[in-house]
Amino acid sequence: MDLIRLLCAIFFPPLGVFLQVGIGKDFWINILLTLFGYIPGIVHAVWVIAKK
Question: Which residue windows are transmembrane per the record (predicted)?
Fold first, then answer.
């Protein structure tokens, strides 16, 4: 399942975070980071997935 989350995090970072933690503060932070830049969104998503 982590592989699927990581692939989602690379192609659409908010989806990877959503699959890991649901709708919460990490999800909204990732939405903002993805809007500001695609790479920060990916980095945050991978970090959230690896942290749990």
Answer: 29-50
Which residue in the block uniquely carries the two structure tokens 């945050």? 44
What burial class does residue 30 get, using C-beta atoms within 10 Å of its C-beta: 0-12 exposed, 13-18 middle, 19+ buried? buried
Q: Write the CA distances from 52 to 21, 35, 36, 48, integer angstroms.
A: 9, 24, 24, 7
Task: Sketch the domain layout of the chain as residue ranges.
Answer: 1-51
pLDDT digits (tens, 9 = 90+) for 4-25: 889 989 999 999 999 999 999 9
pLDDT of residue 25: 95
Residue range 40-52: mean pLDDT, rounded: 92
